[in-house]
Design goal:
heterodimer; A: about 500 residues; alpha+beta; 4-stranded mixed beta sheet; 15 helices; about 25% strand; globular; B: about 300 residues; mainly alpha; MetI-like fold; flat
Chain lengths: ~500, ~300
């Protein structure tokens, strides 16, 4: 049974085609009666719009990719504990440095009976790799040279060199039916092997899922899952307090405590995988070639105080690295630069800087967490050691043009994360070849290369230890804190909290 | 008459073309969609490839001509984010906006004109003071704040109504209330002042002198003429609301055109911005054209001066 998009005009309940009050009332009553039965329903609030149901084009973990995970199956998925587990894959291992072998679970079929086997996996990956498909995710497979069907239950993915993060990346790749694709549009319809199937899709408003009886890989745990798009944070809080929504994210910090105290619902926070930093353009004067100056700025900013005062303690100070403990490659030995204005002043002297030093701080708006406030606090603290930062606030869309075009100002405030939760991708943002690096450091680049050059986890950890250590020392950024990821739950459920943006009904447990 | 109609129609077309052109140029100066669509830190070659795929590497004049030729045929291109025809997306969201706008206008106009009429007729009374104070508050209160307050009171504290979204008749109540308060406030103040103007006109004095009952004077003579500016205002308000009340739609998670456009602007989804703006421009200009054409029928004096 293929579900198609229900155009707003045809969306029930509240169909507009027969816009009679009777029909409306009838529908609302029927809806009310249906939900008062003992059906186990789950309503999740998404913070932004679902763009497409097509997993080939899904890029945003918090919306499109998370929706795909309910409708389709990946080879592997990341659990709330941060570890990968097999979904379609029984197990997987690297074959030397030039291939990965995946053993698939046998007998998995699409709802119509077509097999989801090695052939189908190859077809899907090749389809993404094909420029004709125009998949925005094609670059994930740049290092892949060939996908080989060994047997119906074995796929070998050959790579141009070591590709240690391939399994992580594959957790964001889902499998469509080649047969079904001939006659359907995956952007608005769905037909997969995931635990749920599409019941209704009201563009811009909601997505209703029902159990996929034919699912064998992951079992549905709710009779109905509704994903509602609620873009406004205070409206999400209202939805949680009113009991209309069972799970919501990105709530305003001050509301977390309020929800807990209300007794109507629950709320909490986890450190997210996104680190807030002040980027310093180390290719531009005065920050270029002046490590002492960059270290001085790190001493000048009181991270602890910022987390206490601004986040009410809801945040974790970065340990002199942009990785959070959730990332592979996190370096436990590093400690944050302590807040020490005296030391900062002394370092500025040693750096040969005449104070007051005038510097620009770009603050892109409407994208990063509390950017405007953080920017002002940072500027205020730099002022105290004799660095006068002029804040330039601008729209993110306009700012990003210069940032991605190798034309960032002297400093900029932003948050950084990488969906595979691997140091390779996150630290790779600072590799000299990257257009947004603004950092050119040989030892750092060497260490990254070493980490990428092997699939042996122990060797990789060693390499990232070097890389993070070097980055802490060289200080191409002012390390701030990991942004808190806040959430609220209704009385009905508990959520296995995770800070990596994945939204899965399987992480929700009925009380 | 026909020449007047043709002139007005020509002006309307030029206006739509002008709006669409300005938006076309401004969006292209604001940002680079290719950078926003790919993860930050994507190698330049890939960004350039996507830019080429979206046809954004061509000179602006070529892009513009291409856009015009297609737009005339009703093709506004594929949305960068949704991978679907841009105009389809906008039209898909139009019913939600239309039902919200329509209900709010009707309700707002009924309440607003009653309040305005009473305020004008009962001039200097406590009723007038009350009606106008409420209207002033209604106009001065930010829609955003009002919406949140209504949600907290009726949705959370009392639990009577849904806090947002659109799946039943009940979810229409709060957003309509929010918008109609705004409409009613605007209409009542305008109707009151134009009613007072009308009441001081010669023809009203004549009607009173003829000994007509006050009711007839208020409704038939003054009221009818006082409605003319109100009709204009209501038409403009309707056009405005049909363009999507972005704030209200965002607060109430209402899947309308306003919210779609807001998102398209944030993400630099040019085709959707262009399709949405085109539609809103047509609604706006069309409304104005309609007013221009209906006016002579409402007010005989306009026919004379033409």
């Amino acid at each position: 049974m293929v579900t198609t998009i229900s155009k707003l005009a045809g969306a029930a309940p509240g169909s507009l085609r027969s816009l009679t009050v009777a029909a409306w009332l009838g529908a609302s009553l029927a809806g009310a009666l249906a939900s008062s039965a003992s059906a186990e329903t789950l309503t999740i609030a998404l913070s932004s719009t679902v763009n497409t149901l097509d997993p080939t084009q899904a890029q945003v973990v918090g919306t499109d990719v998370s929706v795909a995970t309910h409708l389709y199956s990946p080879l592997v998925a990341r659990g709330p504990d941060g570890k990968l587990y097999g979904v379609l894959a029984e197990n997987w291992q690297p074959e030397g440095d030039s291939a990965w072998l995946f053993n698939l679970k046998p007998g998995v079929t699409f709802p119509g009976g077509e097999p989801l086997d090695a052939e189908a996996v190859k077809w899907n990956i090749d389809r993404i790799r094909n420029p004709e498909t125009k998949s925005r995710n094609r670059s994930w497979f740049d290092p892949v040279s060939e996908v080989e069907v060994v047997s119906p239950t074995q796929v070998r993915i050959k790579t141009k060199g070591p590709y240690p993060t391939l399994p992580d990346q594959l957790s964001m790749i889902f499998f469509l039916s080649p047969e079904w694709m001939k006659t359907h549009n995956p952007a608005t319809e769905a037909y997969g092997t995931g635990p749920y199937k599409l019941k209704q899709f009201v563009a811009g408003d909601r997505l209703v899922l029902e159990p996929n009886d034919k699912a064998v890989l992951e079992k549905p745990t709710f009779d109905e899952v509704t994903m509602r798009v609620i873009p406004e944070a205070s409206a999400r809080v209202a939805g949680i307090l009113a009991g209309e929504v069972d799970l919501a994210f990105d709530l305003p910090l001050e509301d977390v405590e309020r929800i807990k105290k209300s007794g109507r619902a629950d709320a909490g926070w986890v450190p997210s995988s996104r680190s807030m930093v002040v980027r310093m353009n180390t290719l531009k004067a005065p920050l270029a070639g002046n490590t002492k100056l960059r270290q001085a700025l790190n001493y000048a900013v009181d991270k602890e105080g910022m987390v206490e005062a601004m986040l009410g303690g809801l945040g974790t100070v970065s340990q002199c690295q942009i990785l959070t403990p959730a990332y592979f490659g996190f370096n436990q030995d590093l400690k944050p630069y302590p807040y020490d204005p005296a030391k900062a002043k002394q370092l500025l002297k040693e750096a040969g800087v005449t104070t007051p030093l005038k510097i620009e701080l770009e603050v892109p708006l409407n994208r990063y967490f509390m950017a405007s406030e953080i920017g002002q606090i940072v500027a205020g603290q730099l002022q105290e050691v004799g660095v006068e930062a002029t804040i330039k606030e601008m729209d993110f869309g306009a700012w990003v043009k210069t940032y991605a075009g190798r034309d960032m100002g002297q400093m900029a405030l932003l948050g950084q994360a990488w969906p595979t939760l691997d140091a390779d991708g996150m630290l790779g943002l600072y590799a000299a070849a990257n257009p947004t690096a603004y950092f050119d450091d040989k030892p750092f680049d060497e260490a990254l290369k070493a980490g990428r050059g092997t699939t042996d986890p122990a060797k990789r950890l060693e390499a990232y230890k070097t890389a993070t250590g070097r980055m802490c020392e060289e200080a191409p950024v002012i390390f701030l804190f990991a942004q808190p990821f806040t959430y609220g739950t209704s009385k009905k459920v508990t959520w296995k909290a995770r800070g990596d943006d994945w939204v899965r009904a399987t992480d929700v447990v009925k009380k | 008459m026909s020449r007047y109609v043709i002139e007005r129609l020509g002006e309307a077309l030029v206006a739509v073309w002008g709006i669409v052109t300005i938006v076309f140029v401004v969006t292209r100066m604001l940002g680079d969609p290719a950078v926003l669509l790919l993860p930050l830190g994507t190698p330049e070659a890939q960004v350039a490839a996507l830019r080429a795929e979206l046809g954004l590497e061509r000179p602006m004049i070529i892009q513009y001509l291409d856009f015009l030729i297609r737009a005339v045929q009703g093709d506004f291109g594929l949305s960068y984010q949704f991978f679907r025809p841009a105009m389809d997306l906008v039209l898909e969201r139009l019913p939600a906006t239309a039902i919200l706008a329509g209900t709010s206008i009707v309700l707002g106009v009924i309440i607003g004109s009653l309040a305005g009429f009473v305020a004008a007729v009962k001039r200097g009374s406590f009723l007038e003071f009350l009606a106008m104070t409420v209207a002033l508050l209604g106009q001065a209160t930010p829609v955003f704040w009002l919406g949140i307050m209504l949600i907290l009171y009726f949705g959370v504290n009392l639990g009577w109504l849904p806090t947002g979204g659109w799946d039943s008749l009940a979810s229409l109540v709060l957003p309509v209330l929010t918008l109609s308060i705004f409409v009613a406030a605007t209409v009542s103040r305008l109707f009151r002042s134009s009613m007072l103007d009308a009441l001081s006109e010669d023809y009203v004095r004549t009607a009173r002198a003829k000994g007509l009952p006050p009711g007839t004077v208020y409704t038939r003579h003054a009221g009818r003429n006082a409605l003319i500016p109100v009709v204009t205002m209501v038409a403009i308000l309707t056009a405005e609301l049909l363009g999507g009340s972005a704030v209200t739609e965002t607060v109430f998670s209402w899947p309308g055109v306003g919210r779609l456009l807001l998102q398209a602007i944030e993400n630099k989804d040019f085709p959707v911005i262009q399709a949405g703006v085109f539609l809103i421009a047509v609604i706006f200009v069309g409304t104005n054209l309609l007013i221009d054409l209906i006016y002579p029928l409402l007010d005989p004096r306009i026919r004379v001066t033409r």
